[in-house]
Amino acid sequence: MNVPATPRTDLPFLRRRIKPGRTQDAPGAAATAGLSVPARATAPSSPAASSPSLTLRPQATQAPQPPARSTGAQRPAGLVLGGAAPVLATDGRAQMLAAQREKAQNEDHEVQLLFPAPGIAKLYELNLAQRVLRLSALESAVGTMVVSGCSAVAWESVRRVTGGATADGHKAGTPVMTAGNRELVGYHGKDALISLRHVRELRRAIFINRSSAAMGVRLLSGESIAVPPATNGTQIVLLVHRIGNVLELRAEPVPHDWPDIEVWAEFDFSMTHRAPASAYGR
Fold first, then answer.
1. Considering its fold, how many domains does the chain have in total?
2. In which residue ranges is the amino acid composition biased (Low complexity) (predicted)?
3. Is residue 254 a part of any domain in this protein?
4. Residue 191: is its pLDDT beyond 80?
C-alpha cells in the first residue's frame, strides 16, 4: 500500500488506517486528527476486537477447565417417565419402588429357571400319576382360591408365621392377617380360602381331606381341578407353595391314618404361638 507523502486536508471524514504493530504515526497524522470531528468517548476494547485487519500473531488462550463434578443426585430438569428416573437418596418412596422392581425381576428370573409344568386348564385331576401343575402369574394374583371338601388346612407366611385350622372351627398357631384385615388363609363356612391379592405374603399351605369325597380347587377365572379322596390307605395332601410370582400345586401322598400333627411334622410345619398381652407389659 502506497502512503501519500502529503495527506489531504479537504476531506475531514477520512481516517488513515494504522497497521497493527506500528507505534509511530506517519507525518501529518496530527493535522488530520485536528480537523476531524471529536468522537464520543468509548470504553477501551481489546486490540483483537478493535483491529479489523488480519493478524498472524498467536493469541493467548486459556486452558480448558475440567467439568465440575456433581456433589450429589439432582432432580432432572425435564419430564422423566418409567424406570429411567434416577433414584434420589432422600426420596423414600422412590427407593421403595426401586426395591419392588428389583424384587419382581428376581422373581421372574426364578420362574424362568423352573422345569415345564402343565397349567390348570390342561388337567382335570391331581393324582399320583399327574402330581403337579403351575398357575400363571395372573391366575396366582387375582381373586381368591377356593378349596372345597377340605377338612384341615395349615399355612406358613414369608415371615415364617405358621398356623392351622379345621373345618369344625378348631385353630392352632397364629393367623396371618393382610393389610385389609383379612386372613391370608382361613375358612369361610366349609370352604378354605387363600386371598390371592396378598399372595406375596404366602410361602406355602397344605390342605388335608379326611372325607370320602373328592377335594376341589376353583379360581376366579372359573378354572377348577379335583383331588381324589383317600384310597388303599393313602390320602393325598394338596400342597400349594409360591415360587417367585406363581403358585404351584402338588399332590403329596401320606398314610391315611396319620393325624394332623404328624402331617404337619411331615411337611415341617411348626405352629407359631403368640405371647399373651401381659408378656409385653401392656
1. 1
2. 38-63
3. yes
4. yes
